[in-house]
Design goal:
Rossmann fold, two-stranded antiparallel ribbon, alpha/beta, 10% strand, five-stranded parallel β-sheet
């Protein structure tokens, strides 16, 4: 897991570097699901319109990001994760003895520090060797921020069908609900040491769940790729489905982090190629036998709507930022799946704007402006 050099230098996490491997020879489903992404509306706490979050305020460091055109080297200036002069102030947050004034009246835990935990797959690990993963980049979007990246390569939201019991002792894979139980103290972190590594286990044990402000949750691609059911209409909390796992995992974490907000991020748009490099379709047309990736993405949003204190980042919609069938070559690596550095910067700014809107730093109009990649060229 990546070593997170946040402002507080709280902890580094190390995970193996990985990118999503191209899907080979899946079936193609021409069913149009492009209109299935639902607006994000949950007790007024999410951005109006669900998916039109953009960064025109300058607070998200977009201008500095755009200054660098390199997508293979370490980021410069605002995206060097060790920069800013607030290291000493931020490190005090972990001592639980020094408190600042709340960052805003809407700060979930009003201790003056933004404590953010990332849970998901390798979309939050891409760029770890260079120190510019999405969690890395978030450290420069806010002052007084502690970032914990608990993302794990190739992981799913749902538990495997072979797991018939949901007792803590029966979790063998670090899917979302299992990791929720780890943070809740029901499962020892070292149970998943082969996935988390030594530093990852230490991070799980270090996090004070009572002070977490935001959990950023990003699952769904591997549920889709492995043919796991997206939902169970008869049991919306079925952990064997993506929808049910997200609902159950959030509820588990809410028991130990009652003030936290949960940001559910859908999978983003991608393109698929066969073993010969032929384009066979995109997230709205290619299926692994059950549904398209877009359907799974929509289920993450619907799951968030079923929970309280949730915000939604429907990345696949194309209106949060303009990643779509026309621009994907600018956002993604040649595999059509992995976000390049520019794409990760834009994604980070979209995520930061969602938090800023929730904190009351920006208004609805600004929050509903689509980020365009042309602004980063």
């Amino acid at each position: 897991m990546n070593r997170i050099k946040n402002i507080s230098k709280v902890l580094g996490l190390i995970l193996s570097v990985s990118v999503l491997s191209a899907c080979t020879s899946p079936g193609v489903d021409n069913k149009d699901v492009s209109g299935t992404i639902t607006p994000a509306s949950n007790d007024g706490s999410s951005i109006a319109g669900a998916a039109t979050d953009a960064d025109t305020s300058g607070e998200g460091a977009s201008n500095e990001d755009a200054a660098s055109n390199s997508e293979t080297t370490d980021v410069a200036d605002s995206d060097n994760v060790s920069e800013k002069g607030s290291d000493q102030s931020a490190s005090a947050a972990t001592e639980a003895t020094i408190y600042r004034d709340p960052i805003s009246n809407q700060e979930p835990v009003k201790d003056g520090y933004l404590n953010i935990v990332f849970l998901g797959d390798e979309q939050f690990l891409t760029g770890e060797a260079e120190g510019n993963t999405i969690p890395d980049l978030m450290t420069n979007r806010f002052d007084y921020t502690n970032i914990y990246n608990l993302a794990i390569k190739d992981t799913t939201g749902a538990i495997p069908r072979s797991q018939t019991s949901t007792k803590p002792s029966d979790y063998k894979e670090p899917n979302f609900t299992a990791m929720a139980h780890v943070l809740a103290g029901d499962i020892k972190a070292d149970t998943f040491s082969s996935y988390l590594g030594t530093d990852g286990v230490a991070a799980c044990n270090k996090i004070d769940v009572k002070t977490v402000d935001y959990y950023v949750i990003g699952y769904g691609y591997h549920d889709y790729y492995n043919g796991i059911e997206s939902t169970n209409e008869n049991n919306p909390e079925d952990e064997h489905t993506l929808h049910g796992a997200i609902v159950t995992g959030i509820k588990t974490l809410q028991e130990v982090s009652p003030n936290a907000q949960f940001i559910v991020c859908s999978p983003y748009y991608c393109r698929f190629f066969d073993e010969n490099g032929k384009d066979i379709g995109d997230a709205f047309s290619v299926t692994k036998g059950l549904n398209t990736l877009a359907v799974y993405a929509n289920e993450t949003v619907l799951a968030a709507d079923q929970c309280t204190n949730t915000l939604k980042l429907p990345a696949i919609s194309g209106t949060l930022f303009d990643l779509n069938g026309h621009t994907y070559t600018q956002y993604l690596e040649s595999d059509g799946l992995t976000m390049n550095l520019k794409g990760r910067r834009i994604y980070t700014d979209a995520l930061a704007r969602l938090i800023k809107y929730h904190l009351g730093f920006i208004g609805e109009e600004e929050a509903n402006t689509t980020i365009t990649i042309a602004d980063y060229n």
